[in-house]
Design brief:
mainly beta; seven-stranded antiparallel β-sheet; four-stranded antiparallel β-sheet
């Protein structure tokens, strides 16, 4: 995934990132373990991140994605991760200002297919954190994305 940190809070506006000012911090990795944003990533109290890339399904089954965040976070996978993404069509909607809350959503994925994935997160003051997990009926809930997450160097993640 490719992640970019922005100055300010996106306030649940998914198009905010189109014109937002990047802070300069980026994270690019083909294998992200302990995928999270923490106070180590940002000294400001108001900041936002957007990650884009691909999720590769290792088996054909139902995948459940989880977002534990303080404040807002959203996850899209599939066509909506590329274009037309809104808070209303997010697979995982953990929007609004709040302390750490976990939300989840499930989707059927097919073995060895690569699915576009987009994650947006923002902190609107105070402590901020994001942890991303997934599970399937045969994979225990994990935040280890090795061999599951990829990005395109030539196209900002997607």
């Amino acid at each position: 995934l490719e992640g970019i940190r922005y100055i300010g809070y996106f306030n649940d506006d998914t198009s905010w990132f189109n014109t937002a000012t990047p802070h300069g911090d980026t994270v690019c990795s083909t294998a992200i373990n302990n995928f999270s944003s923490s106070p180590d990533f940002a000294q400001e109290e108001e900041y936002s991140w957007q990650w884009t890339g691909y999720f590769r399904a290792s088996s054909t089954e139902t995948y459940t994605f989880y977002l534990d965040s303080d404040d807002a976070s959203y996850l899209w996978i599939g066509a909506n991760a590329v274009a037309g993404f809104t808070t209303g069509n997010a697979l995982v909607n953990n929007g609004g200002g709040h302390g750490v809350i976990e939300r989840s959503g499930s989707v059927d994925l097919t073995k060895v297919n690569y699915y576009p994935i987009r994650i947006q997160f923002g902190n609107n003051g105070g402590g901020g954190s994001l942890a991303v997990y997934f599970s399937t009926p045969t994979i225990a809930k994990t935040n280890v994305f090795t061999d599951f997450i990829f990005y395109n160097d030539n196209n900002n993640g997607l």
